[in-house]
Amino acid sequence: MRSTVPLPLTLFAVLVYLFLMGPLVIVIGAALSDTSYLTFPPQGLTLRWFEKIFEMAAFRRTIVTSIQIAFLATAIALVIGIPAAYALNRFRIQLPGWLSTIFVLPVLVPEIVLGFALLRSVATSWELPIFATLLIGHTLIVLPYCVRVVSASLASFDFSVEEAAISLGSPPLKTFFTVVLPNIKAGVIAAFILAFITSINDVSVSLFLTGPGVSTLPIQILAHVEQFFDPVIASVSVLLMLLTVAVMAVVERTLGLTFLAK
Amino acid sequence: MTQALTLKNLTAHYGTTKVLDDLSLEVPAGELVSLLGASGCGKTTTLRLVAGFLEPTSGSITLGGKDLTRLPAHKRDIGLVFQSYALFPHLSVADNVGFGLKQRGVGAADRAKRVTAMLERVGLAHLADRLPGALSGGQRQRVALARALVIEPPLLMFDEPLSNLDARLRLEMRAEIRTLQRANGTTSVFVTHDQEEAFSISDRVAIMHAGQIMQYDTPEVLYQRPANEFVARFVGYDNLIPMQVAARDGARVTAAAQGAELILSQDDFGAIPDCFVLAARPEGLLVSDQGIPARLGLRTYLGRSYQYVCETPLGSLLATSPLSDVREPGSAVHLAPNPAQCCILPAA
């Protein structure tokens, strides 16, 4: 027996895909256009707008800052998030239920509010350098992802495996690194990637925390588009997309994207 | 190498809930002792206390004269076998078995030799390079056993090790555990909720309830001479009948309860106190012409006999008739004790 998809459903699916993909196609098309203004469909084909990105010091600088912040914020969030996720799962019975909710709160607070709060407290009262302030903000927004994804991985980890290692003479801390960590590796990698992408694409929090001389790529894109309307903006957007896609491709290859849907 | 395990006045709490209440137990060197009871009776708590994963509120744990009570778990040198096997998923079978030796600083060459020898003993030498995920349940249990045995611990502990296996494999593994334990003479503690398993594998069984040991003895004694009503019910004395002695005539005792009378002989039961509880298995009450008046209810065919639910002045009782004497539900009969399947308990 062959089941056929009804025509209206097929049409609907096609429309949804168009809706999702349309903007991407327009941006990619505009980035390749051989004109000095943004246009679609592209007129002529060129890669010179991509070269242009790297000729502009502001973009070069912000790309580096964005990647630095994303790496550092993700690393710090993992250093905090992995032990937190471990404790939340290992002592699930003893701990109150609301404790794990606390780690998700930064996601529930609108990022723009979080950004403003950080501006008022960290940036203005403590007068930390802009880079440090950005780092704190980004660490905060990626931490919930780290805790959640590592938790998902620990939820299916049998803690008697850890006890077995301890009973065989392995001290608890060593056991964490030699037995627990290798078995939640997939979750840690997934958390890293998710956090990295979240940080590199962030606008709302960075908007408040960037300042003279130090900015991130998305904020620089905003600043650029306020003054110019050339295809550089499209090409740099494509670059940001490619960065994300590249990272996702690595996940897909190593773990499968279904892992993130957990 | 064999050492006795002594638990003295152990009390433990989860938060404010008392889960172990002044428990004392002596496991003689080289014996296999089972902790038997329903879930929540404290048997796993006891095991976790001895392993060092929990701390007692008070009391002490000693193994071969050495006090373990405050020693960290990784320094206790106890072989553990878990219900979930708890193999290291990221290590090969050989590395799983060699893990404990590595922690003890045994060199690679010596380690490989001992691991291979151990895997041969449990019949898994050909699977040394596999990951645990590629093994069947029985094979995983064997690896877990090998991993615990290879460190030659003075004490082996099993936490419901067979409950994830199918029935046939369970019998096979049970025999294998017993054989290996006997051969090594390792003092062992076996936690289970399965009475048949506990009785068949153990030198002694501690029947636990509500954080206490109700009776600790050999399976034979537990089965034939339970010390109290809890143990009696646990080992299958379904009928517990409180009675008083009405008259004594030499060894012959007439006992009464709720107007029903039974004649019991002290030759069968030993001395019978004035107040006692008659504990009878379903086979211990036979459908008869004298004894406790009863009306037969639901009849169950058990292959070698029939079993009946009976309404009596003493409440609902389970009784038996041989295949040659089948009775119809609803008929009025009497129930007489069969001393071989009964015992006398002190009144509660």
What does this structure look like?
The complex is a heterodimer of chains A (262) and B (348). Chain A is mostly helical. Chain A has two domains: 1-46, no CATH class; 56-261, MetI-like fold (Orthogonal Bundle). Chain A contains 13 helices and no strands. Chain A has helices at residues 7-32, 48-55, 57-90, 98-102, 105-108, 111-125, 130-155, 159-167, 172-183, 185-201, 204-209, 217-227, 232-254. The longest helix of chain A is centred in the N-terminal third of the chain and has 34 residues, at 57-90. Chain A is globular. Chain B is α+β, with helices and mostly antiparallel strands and 348 residues long. Chain B has two domains: 5-233, Rossmann fold (3-Layer(aba) Sandwich); 237-346, Beta Barrel (OB fold (Dihydrolipoamide Acetyltransferase, E2P)). In chain B, 25% of the residues lie in helices and 38% in strands. Chain B is built from nine helices and 20 strands. In chain B, strands 6-7-8-3-9-10 form a six-stranded mixed β-sheet, with helices on both faces. In chain B, strands 13-12-11-14-20 form a five-stranded antiparallel β-sheet. Chain B is elongated, with a radius of gyration of 25 Å. The model of chain B has no long low-confidence stretch (mean pLDDT 93). The chains are: A mainly alpha (262), B alpha+beta (348). Chain A binds chain B through residues 94, 158, 160-161, 163-172, 175, 179, 182-183, and chain B through 15, 51-53, 72-80, 82-84, 86-90, 99-100, 103-104, 144, 147, 151.
Short descriptors:
heterodimer; A: 262 residues; mainly alpha; MetI-like fold; 2 domains; B: 348 residues; alpha+beta; Rossmann fold; OB fold (Dihydrolipoamide Acetyltransferase, E2P); six-stranded mixed beta sheet; five-stranded antiparallel beta sheet; 9 helices; elongated
